[in-house]
Amino acid sequence: MSLAERVLQGEVRAAARLMRDxxxxxxxxxxxxxxxxxHTGSAYVIGITxxxxxxxxxxxxxLTAAYRKQGKRVGIVAVDPTSPFxxxxxxxxxxxxxxxxxxxxxxxxxxxxxxxxxxxxxxTGDVVNVLDAMGMEVVIIETVGVGQDEIxxxxxxxxxxxxxxxxxxxxxxxxKAGILxxxxxxxxxxxxxxxxxxxxxxxxxxxxxxxxxxRGWRPKVLKxxxxxxxxxxxxxxxxxxxxxxxxxxxxxxxFLEEKNASLFLDILKERLFAExxxxxxxxxxxxxxxxxxxTRRTDPYTAVEEILAERFGIGKG
Amino acid sequence: MAExxxxxxxxxxxxxxxxxxxxxxxRAFRDAGFEVIYTGLHQTPEQIVSAAIQEDVDCIGLxxxxxxxxxLLPRVSDLLKExxxxxxxxxAGGVIPADDxxxxxxAGIKEVFTPGTSTEDLVNWVRENVRPRA
Lengths: 317, 134
Ligand SMILES: Nc1nc2c(ncn2[C@@H]2O[C@H](COP(=O)(O)OP(=O)(O)O)[C@@H](O)[C@H]2O)c(=O)[nH]1
Ligand SMILES: [Mg+2]
Prior knowledge:
The structure holds 2 protein chains of 2 kinds.
Chain A: H1 3-8, H2 12-23, H3 27-36, E1 44-49, H4 56-69, E2 74-80, E3 89-91, E4 106-112, H5 124-133, E5 138-142, H6 152-156, E6 159-164, H7 172-182, E7 185-188, H8 196-209, E8 220-223, H9 232-249, H10 251-282, H11 285-294, H12 300-312
Helix pairs in contact in A: 2-3, 2-5, 4-9
Chain B: E1 7-13, H1 20-31, E2 35-43, H2 45-54, E3 59-64, H3 69-82, E4 89-94, H4 101-106, E5 111-113, H5 119-129
Parallel strand pairs in B: 1-2, 1-3, 3-4, 4-5
The complex binds guanosine-5'-diphosphate and magnesium ion.
Guanosine-5'-diphosphate binds near residues 58 and 225 of chain A.
């Protein structure tokens, strides 16, 4: 039986193995994903982003508990950075989620970025698909949360939650640089700290001034204390409100069009590049171009046009 | 393009309170280029085994100080067998009396490290004894 068939039957080891094959870039994984694709699309995908230490993993843990109470099966993808120096990584988000480890209705997978920028790994979308196909009704993605360009998550998640902590101060700049645009829901966690109310107000004011990402939806700012399970019910209702909004307004169609286009184009780009690069690597052309450029006899623009013309009959003009 | 990366779960079962040792080991493994799933303190053997399976790790390394090694470690081993996941290499380290080591090894713990083992030795042992799956 193929891994995909075993995944569809809910087999945990098969799902875990397929995720590994996807992450490691095995060709066989693509064939399995083809089989799974028709069985995906029913999970509600939530993205959780925000700076390290804001309490994302703790929130994921509490959200998971809340969804489990509703009887929903939950998949979690938690992404942490790969060290650029050693290629290794410490994936530590599970620390906050251990109580769900032996619950059959929860599947947690930690992923390393492996050099991919944008807050998630290259494999994240496909891993979400595996969780979706194996019947997880809610899938929560926790991003790395370091930079400001965590935009990948917006394409992948139906609802994106931006988690902040009280005392924004200097972070105001960071907020301007794109965080406001990506959130459907904003959470000020660590509400036990002073200044929480002020941060909520500041954020709300900034959101007022910000042109909406989606005209029909006004993001709210909520307060939580994840470590003591406070404010979680309100957060779950707000997520549900956004999910319902997507469907009732038809915004879901726009979301899916963009998601599908970027997914398709990413695969196209990757495959085209691999195809051409593999070819010129094997036939020695790559080396020849490199040598030509060294002495300025070949320019890279012409070289690319010629290679495309040879390979596909395109490129000039 | 395809390249297997070694994945290893590091954690600390039982009740005792600090995880300094486990963290040092986790960092050494990261610096060796492994992906370390670090699960922290206080997990049950059930949680450890289930995490190892979901994460599809090649290896489990547990740090243990509580004196409960003779029950907790064989329990992890048994669960791995029960779930047909005993292809995962399992080792442990901590304050473990020499007399207990043979018993642990026959229970399926591949190696037992006692205090004083350098992180370099640990990394080398993993490199020699654990292969990322085919
Ligand atoms: N005071 C306080 N600490 C919290 C709260 N939520 C999480 N924390 C703590 O903040 C630290 C970082 O949490 P974590 O969930 O790992 O953050 P992440 O890096 O964003 O995933 C941990 O020590 C948590 O226990 C909260 O509401 N209040
Ligand atoms: Mg985290």
